[in-house]
Each structure stands twice: as structure tokens, then as C-alpha cells.
Amino acid sequence: MAVLSASIRRKLQHFLLFVFAVISVFGCNQITPQNISNLSFQQLSVECKIVQHAMGESCIPLNPKRIVIIDRFNFDNALALGIKPVGTVRSQAYLVPYLRGKMNGIELITNIDGHPNLEKILLLKPDLIIGLSSPSYRSIYKQLSKIASTVLLPWGKEAYIWKHNLENLAGLLDKQEEANQVLHNYTHRVTELRQTLDSQSQQRSASFALFYPGGFSLYRKDSFSGNILTDVGLKTTDPGISELPLSEEILPEIDDDALFIGGLTEDDKFRLEQLQKKPLWFQIKAVKQNQVYLVNAAVWHGYNMLAAHAVLDDLEKYLLNR
């Protein structure tokens, strides 16, 4: 009875909210009446379940067919769980190599003034919208929820517990078994890599640094990349601050055997090339040991299971010379 009553309540809400959805989204994205007339809210006849999330509660379809995910972290985890959304918000800078061959049939939704294009989302006719409860998504939650059932999963410190993020999404979509298998596969691979490093007497340390306009950040061991390095048995320099800009002069103090460096733009790569010409570059321990590796910053800052496996690929490639 709980599911039935939730379904009835949802139907009534959508009849009332339909007009408000049209008006709200029209005001933000200039949707034409012709576009609106072609839309059908399929969720009106779908049973739903009530879920609690960062913005309160929502009644989501028991078996959603057209999911739109508005953040890249949940989107990549969805793919890892075997779920294929109909659309996602993603910039070209974050179309990382591990997504190659996985984006067919998925619409890329652009941002307008820092927010997802609501018109594009509406035209995709989603029955469920999923995102993180960051400030930018909170500000448009009401508009999103008038398009379709919307769930914003935790943001902030909890969002950086990346394995927990996978479990949150799996719990929302009743994919716990799939999540358990995905986590098992990761653990198995990590264990194998750790044993291989141990067998080769590779008692190493490593860190990840991100270059960007104005400086660089050294990621601490409780970050995504730091967590993976720790999982495979690599010690890592902990700067004591989390992902804050640091001066280039601190680079020689990074006392790690290997240093993985990433940049998001061509300008970042140019800055690194300029740094490599300076005397301080040759004071870095990893440089002296010829163990500085350029990696994809979006991968090493991925905070999702697909990215985690891509990081493991890099570790095997560079540390085991595979």
C-alpha cells in the first residue's frame, strides 16, 4: 500500500507541477510552445518509491528507464554499475579515455551560465534526474524536480569518500549486488598489484600533483588518488592541507620515489615544460630517479570506479613497465 499511495501522490503532484515546470524552465531556457507540446510525462503512470536525499524526499520510479545524471562522478559510477543514462552534463575536458566507446547514444548536456541546460534536459523526457548536492545544483533543484523526479546525493566531505558514492548510487537504483561485484573486482586488482610490488621489493612512495593556472596542488593521502596509492601499498607525501595551491619552491621537498603530474589544459602542460627548465626541477627526488610521469588529470581526479581502474592502469604501466 505504501508504494501505491506514493504513486497516486506522485501522479497528482505531476498534474499540478506540469504547468509550473513549463513556466519555470521556459523562463530560464526560452523553450518554445512547439517543443513543450511534444513532451509526454511518462512518469505519471509509473509506480514510485519514496527516497530520502540531501534536499528532502522524492518519489522515484521503481524501474527508471530514462535517467539523466548531471554530475560526472555519479555518471561514471552508473556506467560501472551497468546503467546507461540517456544524458549527462559533461564538458569536453572531461571526456576521458576510459569513456571511449561508452558514450554512444548518450546526449551530452552543456552548461549555460554555470548550470545545466534545462531545455535540453526537458527534451530528453527523463523519468529520473540524479546529481550531487553541490551549491550550483541546489540552486536549480526546484526547476529540475518539476521536469522529473530529482535526487541530489550528498556533496562535501562525504562526496570524496568515492567508494561510498558508488554504494549511495547503487542503493538508490537497487543495484547493490552489482556494486558489491564492482568493489570486489577493484579490491582483487589492488591486491594483485600490491603483491607484485612487494614481490619485486618495490617499497616505493608516490604522490600526485595537479598543475593549473596560478600554481599546483599536491594531493594528500585521503584524496581519491592518495587513497588508491595507499591501497596498493605506496606511501605518499601528505602536505597537511587538502588540495590547496602550493608554491613551486616546495616541489623539491616532495620526498617520494615517483611523482605523477597532471594538467587539464594545454596551458598547464606549457607551465610544466617551463618548470622543467628551472634548476629547482632537478632537485626533486623523483626527477633524480627518472620517475616523473605525466598523467591525465581528469582521470586522477575522477572520484569514481572507472577512473580508479584507469589510475591502476597507469600504476601498472609506469611502475611495472607493462
Describe this structure in words.
The model is unreliable at 14-44 (pLDDT under 50). This protein is α/β, with parallel strands linked by helices. The strands form 4 sheets. Strands 5-4-3-8-9 form a 5-stranded parallel β-sheet, sandwiched between helices. Strands 11-10-12-13 form a 4-stranded mixed β-sheet, with helices on both faces. Helix 1 packs across helix 6 (141-147), helix 7 (162-172) packs antiparallel against helix 8 and helix 8 (176-199) packs parallel to helix 13. The protein has helices spanning 2-29, 33-37, 72-80, 118-123, 135-138, 141-147, 162-172, 176-199, 224-231, 266-275, 285-288, 297-300, 305-319; strands at 48-53, 56-61, 67-69, 87-89, 107-109, 111-112, 115-116, 128-132, 149-153, 206-212, 215-218, 258-263, 292-296.
Provide a brief overview of the structure.
With 322 residues, the protein is of the alpha/beta class. It is built from 13 helices and 13 strands. Helix content is 42%, strand content 18%.
Task: Write the topology of this structure.
Elements: H1 2-29, H2 33-37, E1 48-53, E2 56-61, E3 67-69, H3 72-80, E4 87-89, E5 107-109, E6 111-112, E7 115-116, H4 118-123, E8 128-132, H5 135-138, H6 141-147, E9 149-153, H7 162-172, H8 176-199, E10 206-212, E11 215-218, H9 224-231, E12 258-263, H10 266-275, H11 285-288, E13 292-296, H12 297-300, H13 305-319
Helix pairs in contact: 1-6, 3-7, 7-8, 8-13
User: pLDDT under 50 segments (min length 5)?
Assistant: 14-44
E-strand count? 13
What's the SSE pattern? HHEEEHEEEEHEHHEHHEEHEHHEHH
Radius of gyration: 22 Å
Percent of sequence in beta strands? 15-25%
Oligomeric status of the shown chains?
single chain
Physical arrangement of strands within the biggest beta sheet: 5-4-3-8-9
Major β-sheet profile: 5 strands, parallel
Shape: globular
In whole angstroms, the N-to-C terminal distance is: 57 Å
Helix percentage: 40-55%
How many separate helices?
13
- Give the averaged pLDDT, no decimals: 82
What structural class do the secondary elements suggest?
alpha/beta
